[in-house]
């Protein structure tokens, strides 16, 4: 396993991408839990509705919480043209870039296994699929497609091929003894393949939400991110037209997903095609909003102008060390540290104060790294 901590170069970076990544990671490291805790403490009607969105749906359906993971995968795809296509244009070897993408994917898969507690529980009962593993798997294949295709048209053909293949497997290929088209956690094709092919422990007992078919399906989300990154990187920089293209594409995808969902359910745990298309569509729209406000209009660009930039800096600090904080939160209990300092307030205010303190400690840790230009790169 190779890890590199390096000084961040500010050139040729899409500022809005770091901010959007930080916005996404905030919900992972405690933002969603804070909303839920506040709703319990205050019992405000509108806040209770928002808090509902901070919980995953049990199976079929969609909440905001179900967007967080695919949005991160989409963002990793947006970075591919900046990291890979630019090097190809400068004459870099495609085989060298392929090896680099493979190493990154392998390291993320290994980190995912460690995150799952392989060292803690022992390798005999370890869980191999993981969030980091799925990100690494999908990034590798999406990056490979970008490396060895010449244009966006070819990549769209690959995208359609992946989505159609997943749809055929989930809707038309029969599971032995059960039949075809079942999309439940026991008898569906996802669950069948996970039990058949994945060794070790499955997160869902009969299936794994980061299992084999889910990971293959998720390639489409990362690849759609790469298509979005291609749009942003080509032609004139900081263009309102590009933001419009992203927004229109995203809106179209959302409508397509909703139309498909009338007969093909939106299921995160199975990464169904409508789920892929819906989350990619919303991700396109969010990227358009962040890109327009930060890179095009620069409404919130210069932190010296006050609160607007403070918000950007807050998210940027998180976004530029996203894997660092994800792993650190697994190893170090920030809530316990927060309780050490703020526990005396919990009886009067409620558990939300502990969560808020934990988020503050996490951010201060990341700000320490940010100010010293230390960034974990995989």
Descriptive notes:
By secondary structure, the chain is mainly α. The chain has a domain of 126 residues. Helix content is 67%, strand content 2%. The chain contains 16 helices and two strands. The longest helix is centred in the N-terminal third of the chain and has 28 residues. The radius of gyration is 21 Å and the shape is globular. The chain starts with a strand and ends with a strand. The N terminus is likely disordered.
Number of strands: 2
| Helix proportion | 55-70%
Structural class: mainly alpha
Rg, rounded, reads: 21 Å
On the 0 to 100 scale, the average pLDDT is: 91
Query: In what order do the strands lie side by side in the largest sheet?
Result: 1-2
Multimerization state: single chain
Q: Measure the end-to-end span.
A: 9 Å
Count of DSSP H/I helices = 16
One letter per element, helices H and strands E, the order comes to EHHHHHHHHHHHHHHHHE
Brief overview, please?
The chain has 378 residues and is mostly helical. It contains 16 helices and 2 strands. It has a domain at 1-55 and 308-378.
Descriptive keywords:
single chain; 378 residues; mainly alpha; two-stranded antiparallel sheet; disordered N terminus
Which helices and strands, and how do they pair?
Layout lengths: L3 E3 L8 H28 L2 H8 L15 H22 L4 H22 L2 H4 L9 H18 L3 H20 L17 H9 L14 H22 L6 H21 L12 H24 L10 H13 L2 H10 L2 H9 L3 H4 L2 H20 L3 E3 L1
Antiparallel strand pairs: 1-2
